[in-house]
Design goal:
The protein has helices at residues 4-19, 25-41, 46-60, 71-87, 115-128, 145-155, 169-182, 200-213, 230-240, 257-266, 288-295, 301-319, 329-336, 343-356, 359-363, 379-394, 398-402, 411-421, 425-444, and strands at 103-109, 133-138, 160-161, 187-192, 217-223, 245-249, 271-275, 283-285. With 459 residues, the chain is an alpha/beta fold. The protein has 3 domains: 4-87, SRP54, nucleotide-binding domain (Four Helix Bundle (Hemerythrin (Met), subunit A), Up-down Bundle), CATH 1.20.120.140; 103-295, 3-Layer(aba) Sandwich (Rossmann fold); 320-444, 434 Repressor (Amino-terminal Domain) (Orthogonal Bundle), CATH 1.10.260.30. The protein has an 8-stranded mixed β-sheet with strand order 3-2-4-1-5-6-7-8, sandwiched between helices. Helix 2 runs antiparallel to helix 3 (46-60), helix 5 packs parallel to helix 6 and helix 7 (169-182) runs parallel beside helix 8. The chain binds guanosine-5'-diphosphate.
Length: 459
């Protein structure tokens, strides 16, 4: 998942604290030190980390807690809420609506940040929501920019405007707006030029395009790899043009992503999406609480359902007309709370997830499927493990699969199943352990109607 390492380090610190015999100053101190180290490794600014640490201490304030209160739970909640606060700029961004007048959104950023790719992903996102988005290429600085936008737009079936002859980006932007407005577009996205570094010419050009097109929203696109340097970069862009939102790209495989996200939040700019890969579908809505839930392995059921509906189902249906839309009973049950997970339902989830593709991303949205099972960049390994578990389950009886009591499997059955599936006894045990862990977590889950989980459910 995005920031798998950071998430698993913090989760590990919390689990260790939770399993300490007594939660005293020392256990809390050790836990906070581990969290601090993980955040610093993710390139979060030192001042921010110190603030997070101090705030958690204040909230917890062990001495003042009345005897009998659940300290573990209080610490977990404090960590959750401080991580959320660290990533929350406290300001919402403009959201396009299908009003009569088209919304105009202008993209700015340095060259190579992923701006052109993100424009197309953004258009596609709103296209799926029923908008009629369109793209304007006002990048006349980089050779090939128009061809790239054209290619992406064609792939995503989005109307576009650009020119090979005109060299004035302002003229192109104005003409593009006029043309696409006439064609009935309700969301016009303008891609502007970038430069290798922040320089006067870039900022001047941005200002002129903004003045001529009066965008409803200016989105600043930046690369996650710059980590805490995002603070300075976002500030510089904000000073030149009125940036209303940020998209952080290349969150896939960048350990600095946590630093970048928190640095942007510190500039009071809302991050609205994160880019998680080169593919057109690799754009995720960024919402602080579900993001932190996923980071800590608590899942983001709303995000998962959204992803299934928006991306997976249409793609599967397009690939196969006969395809019947999957009916995920377990997720429906989960929405009602108190789910009793059987091995068969775990098997069905595995089947379902294998069918759905970019598995790491999807799995990280399921509660309990933390980075241990699906560590960063190891999707293949994760898939192989899942397939191994499924082979083992293929050798089990119906009664075993439908039971909610894993103790049903005694030692001789474990050995028989291992033999029958051609796997080792330790693999069968590992699969049963995974099942027990998930069953425990899912049974405790309480999901509000919006599907977002707002607190840790593990004790
Ligand atoms: P621009 O110069 O800012 O317009 O950047 P481009 O859109 O041309 O992107 C530069 C490179 O970054 C391209 O190879 C993109 O495929 C890649 N890219 C963009 N967004 C992401 C992302 O979220 N993840 C990854 N891994 N690559 C990305």
């Amino acid at each position: 998942m995005v920031l798998a390492h950071l998430g698993s380090s913090i989760t590990r610190a919390l689990v260790r604290m939770s399993s300490a015999t007594v939660v005293d100053e020392k256990a809390l101190g050790d836990c906070l030190n581990e969290i601090t180290r993980a955040l610093l490794q993710s390139d979060v600014r030192f001042e921010t980390v110190r603030g997070v640490q101090a705030n958690i201490r204040n909230i917890v304030s062990l001495d003042t807690l009345a005897a009998g209160t659940n300290k573990r739970r209080i610490i977990q909640r404090a960590v959750f809420s401080e991580l959320c606060a660290m990533l929350d700029p406290g300001k919402p961004a403009f959201v396009p609506t299908k009003a009569n007048k088209p919304s105009v959104v202008m993209f700015v950023g340095l060259q190579g940040s992923g701006k052109t790719t993100t424009c197309a992903k953004y258009a596609r996102h709103y296209h799926r929501k029923g908008f009629r988005p369109s793209l304007v290429c006002a990048d006349t600085f980089r050779a090939g920019a128009f061809d790239q936008l054209k290619q992406n737009a064609t792939k995503a079936r989005i109307p576009f405007y650009g020119s090979y002859m005109e060299s004035d980006p302002v003229k192109i932007a104005v003409k593009g707006l006029e043309t696409l407005r006439k064609e009935g577009s309700d969301l016009i996205i303008i891609d502007t030029s970038g430069r290798h570094k922040q320089e006067a010419a870039l900022f001047e050009e941005m200002r002129q395009v903004a003045q001529a097109t009066k965008p409803d929203l200016v989105i600043f696109v930046m690369d996650a790899s710059i980590g805490q340097a995002a603070f300075g970069q976002a500030q510089a862009f904000k000073q030149s043009v009125s940036v209303g939102a940020v998209i952080v790209t290349k969150m896939d495989g960048h350990a600095n992503g946590g630093g970048a996200l928190s640095a942007v939040a510190a500039t009071k700019s809302p991050v609205i999406f994160i880019g998680t890969g080169e593919h057109m579908d690799n754009l995720e809505v960024f919402d602080v609480k579900p993001f932190v839930s996923r980071l800590l392995g608590m899942g983001d059921v709303a995000g998962l359902i959204h992803k299934i509906q928006d991306v997976v189902m249409p793609a599967a249906a397009a690939a196969d007309d006969q395809h019947q839309q999957p009916d995920n009973q377990l997720l429906a049950q989960l929405a009602q709370g108190g789910t009793l997970l059987t091995l068969r339902s775990m098997y069905e989830q595995f089947q379902y997830l294998l069918k759905m593709g970019p598995i790491g991303q999807l799995l990280s949205m399921l509660p309990g499927f933390t980075s241990e099972l699906m560590a960063k960049g190891q999707d293949k390994e994760g898939q192989a493990k899942i397939k191994r578990y499924m082979t083992i389950m293929d050798s089990m009886t119906d009664a075993e699969l439908d039971s909610t009591n894993p103790k049903l499997m005694n030692e001789s059955r474990v050995i028989r199943v291992a033999r029958g599936s051609g796997r080792q006894v330790k693999d069968v045990r590992a699969m049963l352990e995974e099942y027990k862990r998930l069953a425990k977590m899912w049974s405790k889950m309480k999901i509000p109607k919006n599907g977002k989980m707002s607190h840790l459910t593990q004790n």
